[in-house]
Design brief:
The complex is a heterodimer. Chain A is α+β, with helices and mostly antiparallel strands. Helix content of chain A is 72%, strand content 8%. Chain A is elongated. The chains are: A alpha+beta, B alpha/beta. Chains A and B meet through helix 8 and helix 9 of A and helix 2 and helix 3 of B.
Chain lengths: 291, 220
Amino acid sequence: MRMKYVLSEVLVGLWRNVTMSIAMIITMTVSLFLLGFGGLLYQKVGDMKDLYYEHVEVSIFLKTDVNDQQRNDLKAKLDSDPLIKGVTYVDKQQAYERFQKMYADAPDLVNAVKPDQLPESFRLTLNNPEQYKNIYDEYKASEGVDEIVDQSKLLDKVFGVLTGIQNITLFISVVMAAAALLLVANTIQVAAYSKRREVAVMKLVGASNWFIQAPFVLEAVVAGLIGAILALGWLVAGKVLLGSGSMAALQGLITPVSWSEIFLMFPLIAGVAALVTAATAWVTLHFYLRV
Amino acid sequence: MTKTYPKASRPSLDNVSVSIEKGEFVFFIGPSGSGKSTIIKLLLHEVHPNKGRVVVNGKDVTSMRSWKRPHFRRSIGCVFQDFRLLPNRTAYENVAFALEVIGKTKAVARRVVPEVLELVGLGGKEHRYPHELSGGEQQRVAVARAFVNRPLILLADEPTGNLDPDTSIEIMRLLDRINRTGTTVVMVTHDSNIVNQMRRRVVEIESGRIVRDQARGVYG
């Protein structure tokens, strides 16, 4: 009977102040959606770092006038370097083939370049991509070396942008959450005011504190959970749109988000929603009802 | 025992010491602002004394933690001048509410509530809303709500303040009947007629001090 009482109070409470409830749910949804989006992005950036950095290469381009002696010395030194996992030699002809493939869209450019004009290179994969600097210092001065290019430099920029997006997302999420929580506090105050007679009688006859507070706290938590469910819906819709619509082009760049990853976000956002709304409601009641 | 409210220039109750036996019927009288309502608040653990102790039902509640207050209040019934009924509930529901919010089942309420409504003389009016009842009848509902949980103590803060003399007498008869069941009744009032008719113990307070404590006393 008490559970039934509490639940019916929750529904009546949400309905009594329905415009405020909707505002509360919308802000909560946006905030939680951004939180979920930020969380997924965080995971994706982690996945992508693993994926890309594993394949990242450091290229040592050789001078066009390099001689066999210099090339062999360098090769031997690279082969014995403990920082380096693998070494591939790319001669002028292979470099030209790569070039042709890379610029297949621009035949004029391909025709203008002769294999002889492209530099030979060693392509290195590192045991730890972050040790690029050591490689650079070690081989920069070696004879016959023209230039050392680290692909991870480029990746750093890409990931810098992604991390920026992630931070902005989380920042907006927090701001929206603050707005949502103020709405929760306000809704609770309105609810407590409209039930002040009941609350006064309950306190007078000795109803326990949790019994007085539960309907209000649950009202906020239910609104928070509805917001979490809607936010999950938005994430699902986001995946559907990203998979089929105009955003499909992005898919090649970003590793795909699986359904399970999206649904695993739900416990996170629902948990955050429930905990934070409950805490806000409880604190509000503590000051407002003095129970 | 002394109680000073913050911002007050003098204590609301100054070195007051009263002992009320189980089953007694006591009037606290005195002019407005004399501190008599503070006694009710102290007994309800709503305010705390600055000095001294408050002992209720053999328990020192002076330093009682606030989370224990709800359970403590279940042993005290309360009636006020303004009835404090819930306007959107019938007489029956108002009384049943007091039981349900302390965890009693609906079955218990169905058994106990008609009984207590009968006791206060509202048999047949269970399903009226407060606005369909007279002032005296509303106060009877309030008394029924205060008494339904069979408290050891009934506190009444000017229960007849909003009622005409005849109705007041009826309410007093009701409180007297409740007192005869063994319930201690503590009533704050400045209704001299009632005090004079009842001839019970009278404690008079003036400016926070007890000026008279008389068994079978009168007002004035």
